[in-house]
Amino acid sequence: MKVELTPEEVADASSLASQRHEAKHKSVRDTGAISRATVPKGTPLEDFIPDRRYRAHFIGLLGEIAYAKATGGEIDRNIYNSGDSHLGDVGRVEVKTATWMGPDVHLKITEKELAMENQPERYVLARVDEKDFHKVELIGEIGRDDFMEKSVSKQYGPRYPRNKIMDAADLDPIPTQ
């Protein structure tokens, strides 16, 4: 299912993205692969968010806003200085947003995140095309217990974290209001 975001919703995502990024301590704010991530030059996403440090938060917020819009929920607007509550982005639902446009897209959650104390009840996989980021694809969802039982462990490279992943085709459809 595709959810089209309004210009106001996209602007809201942009504003919250910069606030979330800047709230982090400067020692961790601009480190890691996310801060070095690039998108192809001249894409609408690169033009809209020229500061690449904000892009990961922005893409995540697009997924959160689209899911909230489709289900009648509200996104967590709190600004945390170290991660978030781990309870969920929209109520007790954690939204993971991918930009991979291939057919083999996965719901991917680090094993470190899965081991944290507070946990959401469900996980949602959304996808954003960097060339047309106003439209968010809501791919599917799964309960935490089912995800823990059915996902497989994968590490994408020796310097990458271990993840639990699940193929998008194995997710449940997202009920809308």
Q: Which keywords apply here?
A:
three-stranded antiparallel beta sheet, about 180 residues, alpha+beta, four-stranded mixed beta sheet
Question: Short description, anyone?
Answer:
33% of the residues lie in helices and 23% in strands. The protein is an alpha+beta fold.
Question: Largest beta sheet: what is the strand line-up?
Answer: 1-5-4-2
- Tell me the distance between the termini: 13 Å
Overall structural class, as computed from helix and strand content, comes to alpha+beta
The value of Rg in angstroms is 15 Å
Please estimate the helix content. Answer: 25-40%
Give the rounded overall mean pLDDT.
Answer: 87
Order of helix and strand elements from N to C terminus: EHHHHHEEHEEHEE
Would you kindly provide a written description of the structure presented here, covering whatever features stand out?
With 177 residues, this protein is an alpha+beta fold. The protein has seven helices and seven strands; from the N terminus they run βαααααββαββαββ. It has helices at residues 7-23, 26-29, 32-36, 44-48, 55-71, 111-114, 144-150; strands at 2-4, 93-98, 106-110, 122-128, 135-143, 152-155, 162-167. It has a four-stranded mixed β-sheet with strand order 1-5-4-2. Strands 3-7-6 form a three-stranded antiparallel β-sheet. A hairpin with a 6-residue loop joins strand 4 (122-128) and strand 5 (135-143). Helix 1 (7-23) packs across helix 5. The longest helix has 17 residues, at 7-23. It is globular and about 40 Å long. It starts with a strand and ends in a 10-residue tail after the last strand.
